[in-house]
Structure formats: structure tokens, C-alpha cells
Design brief:
Length: 245
């Protein structure tokens, strides 16, 4: 029991150290602020269009388009995570050290999720503007942001797996974006497929599950799906790195 606790503490410290290193690296990079600026400009167009032009005092349209922005912006955040280590030769050095592949992946995973949350933080201004303008449905907004965390985590896991496959960051971005497009838009491509097959493929759509949460209904099956996608691609990333030991 004591050995297990010692191993857990050591593993936790490794993951925390890698998390801190990755987070500091991104926060100190101009790339993050470029991505944030473009993201906020584009999402702001949809929010303020509804708010000022249509006169709709809610964030429904913002959450509707969020998965479509995530499928391009999150791969831009994750494309460097493993690919950069491989291209610089530091991955080989890291995996020969007493650092497990799971610690490496988890450290980068949680750092990337934190970066996405930093990117999302200014959108809370939209909530404040709604509060000034009227009485928004805060339950739906909170559920939408909770869903955003799980959606972001699943796309981050996909992105890290794509980054683990290549040393080229552009290829990592393309592969990750392709996966994210599949998970985001599969329900748009299967409209004419028969019933049972449609239901199965529709269940694979991350945007389908996210929209369920964004409507203010925290259904267990939607959260479970997004967590499962995250765990699945985290495991694939660990396996991909371990094969190079």
C-alpha cells in the first residue's frame, strides 16, 4: 500500500511538472495570443450578430457554432505537443528518462485543456453583457460551459494523438482537423442513411452530444461519450509513444 502511494505521488509530481512546463511554454508564446485573438474575433461576430442585430439575448448561437471553431483552433494548439518533441529529438531523450509515456501525455493533455480554457475565458464577457441587457438563462449557460470543457478535452485528446504520429506539425494539424471534422460533422453527412445505422453514426457525433449539454440538460450519456473519446485517444497516444521506447 505504501509503495503504491509512493508511486502515485511520484507519478503525480511528474505529470504536474510536465503540465507546468507546457503551460508556461504556451503562455510565454505569441502563438497563443494570435490564436486567441482570431478565435475571439470570429466567435464574437456570431454572438454580437445575435445580440445587436437579431436582438436575441442568449448564447445559443455561440454554443451552436463553437464545435466548428474548435475543430480548427484546438488542433492548432495541440499540433506541437508531441511533434515538436520528435522533430527536436527531445522525445527520445524524455522517453529514456524515468518518465512514463502516460505522465507525458497527461501533462500535455491537461496543459492543452487549460490553454483552451484560457482562450475561452474572455467569452465570459458575453455572459456579463447578457446580464446587463436582461435576465439570461444562467442554467443553460453554465451547462454550455460545462459541455465546452468536455468537448475541448475530447478534441485535445484527438489532437495529441495526431501529434504523436508525426514530427511535422502541419501534418499533425491536418490529421487532427480531419478527425475533429469527422466528430463534429458526421451527423450532417448521414441524413439519408437508414434508421439503425443513422442512430449509431449519429451517436458518434461529438457536436450532437455537446448540443445536448448546451441546451441546458446535463445528461449522463453525453458527458460519458465525451469522456470516453478523451480516454480512448489518450490511450492511443500513450501506445504511440511507448512503441518508440
Amino acid at each position: 500500500m505504501n509503495n503504491n502511494m509512493i508511486n502515485f505521488r511520484y507519478s503525480f509530481r511528474q505529470t504536474r511538472a510536465l503540465f507546468g512546463k507546457e503551460l508556461r511554454s504556451y503562455v510565454g508564446s505569441p502563438i497563443l495570443y494570435i490564436i486567441m485573438t482570431v478565435f475571439l474575433l470570429l466567435t464574437g461576430v456570431f454572438y454580437f450578430k445575435d445580440f445587436y442585430i437579431i436582438g436575441r439575448a442568449d448564447m445559443r448561437q455561440f454554443f451552436n457554432v463553437l464545435p466548428f471553431f474548435f475543430m480548427f483552433f484546438i488542433p492548432a494548439i495541440t499540433m506541437r505537443q508531441i511533434a515538436e518533441e520528435r522533430s527536436s529529438g527531445t522525445l527520445e531523450m524524455i522517453i529514456t528518462m524515468p518518465v512514463s509515456a502516460s505522465n507525458l501525455v497527461l501533462g500535455k493533455f491537461f496543459a492543452s485543456v487549460a490553454i483552451v480554457m484560457i482562450m475561452m475565458a474572455p467569452t465570459l464577457f458575453y455572459v456579463l453583457s447578457l446580464g446587463v441587457a436582461g435576465v439570461p438563462d444562467y442554467g443553460m449557460i453554465v451547462a454550455g460551459y460545462i459541455g465546452t470543457i468536455f468537448l475541448a478535452a475530447s478534441y485535445v485528446a484527438v489532437g495529441i494523438f495526431a501529434s504523436s504520429l508525426t514530427k511535422n506539425q502541419i501534418i499533425a494539424w491536418l490529421v487532427s482537423t480531419a478527425f475533429c471534422i469527422f466528430f463534429t460533422m458526421i451527423d450532417y453527412f448521414i441524413q439519408f442513411i437508414p434508421g439503425k445505422i443513422f442512430a449509431f453514426l449519429n451517436y458518434l457525433s461529438a457536436s450532437y452530444h455537446f448540443q445536448g449539454l448546451a441546451k441546458g440538460v446535463l445528461e449522463f450519456r453525453n458527458i460519458t461519450y465525451l469522456i470516453t473519446v478523451s480516454l480512448f485517444f489518450i490511450i492511443l497516444s500513450v501506445r504511440s509513444i511507448e512503441e518508440r521506447r
